[in-house]
Amino acid sequence: MHRPYRIANKLEIEKNHVCFLNPKRIELLKLIHSEGSILSASKVLRMSYQQAWMIIRDINYSASLPVVVRQRGGTNGGGAIITDYGQKLIERYDMLQAKFQSCLSDLDEELQALCTF
Prior knowledge:
Elements: E1 13-15, E2 18-21, H1 23-35, H2 38-45, H3 49-62, E3 68-71, E4 79-82, H4 84-115
Antiparallel strand pairs: 1-2, 3-4
Helix pairs in contact: 1-2, 2-3
């Protein structure tokens, strides 16, 4: 069934009126966790390392504890890790996102009923 109307929205969490977490930032954090570095994650997302690093800096600044920690180079090179606190943030954001999508689906059903009379 074709639905010409839809409610489009993304879950964005702000702190002091500034973006703290949104889908793009969560995706970056997940990729840093899986790739082991900010550079690798930024390449997957096709963003500059500088842009990725600025996002991480903003997240770490806004969070009550560090979310991403850089590791210095060594025999295996440097990298970055997501802290335990960062992992919990990702998990909680994902839970909120699921609830948010459920609410959007309910609202979408109401919208379709409203627009089809």
